[in-house]
Amino acid sequence: MWPPGGCHAEGAHTRARVRVESNDPHTSHAYYWCMDPALGNLPGHELVSAGLDDLAAGRETEASLLVAMAAPRLRAIGIAVPPAGGDDPSHRLYELLALAAESPHSRYNALVGRIVSFARAAEHAPSG
């Protein structure tokens, strides 16, 4: 189970526990992630929630790649990010955007700005 010790481990946000079934053929177990519901009021929370769901389910989406890029910072603030996302999620995100958008550079910068805003706000949010 991630995080080690579960959602109630020291430093893990414990307010919400969501069960996500994995569609990844290499993963046969359910994944649980935790995020303090107070973080749901922060800018970009919908991207983080969607990204956590998608990572847990083995889906490569804009949100999952964005969360994989920000995983070290998100883990440092206590969000249990699954150990997924593969190699070089930033390049894969840009490639995915280039397939779908006319201006991938602008979209990429906007997404990175949203996750940075979320992380900054979460770092300064009161806990509990």
Annotation, overall tally of beta strands: 2
Kindly provide the radius of gyration, computed on alpha-carbon positions and rounded to a whole number of angstroms. 14 Å
The SSE string, one letter per element, is: EEHHHH
Structural class, by secondary structure, is: mainly alpha
Distance N to C terminus: 23 Å
Largest sheet composition: 2 strands, antiparallel
Q: Rough shape?
A: globular
SS strand fraction: 5-15%
Task: List descriptors.
128 residues; mainly alpha; two-stranded antiparallel sheet; 4 helices; 6% strand; globular; disordered N terminus
Q: How is this structure best described in words?
A:
The protein has 128 residues and is mostly helical. It contains four helices and two strands, in the order E-E-H-H-H-H. It has one domain. The protein has a two-stranded antiparallel sheet.
Give the SSE layout:
Layout (H helix, E strand, L loop, with lengths): L16 E4 L10 E4 L10 H13 L4 H15 L12 H12 L3 H21 L4
Antiparallel strand pairs: 1-2
Helix pairs in contact: 1-2, 2-3, 2-4, 3-4
Summarize the structure.
The protein is 48% helix and 6% strand. With 128 residues, the protein is mainly α.
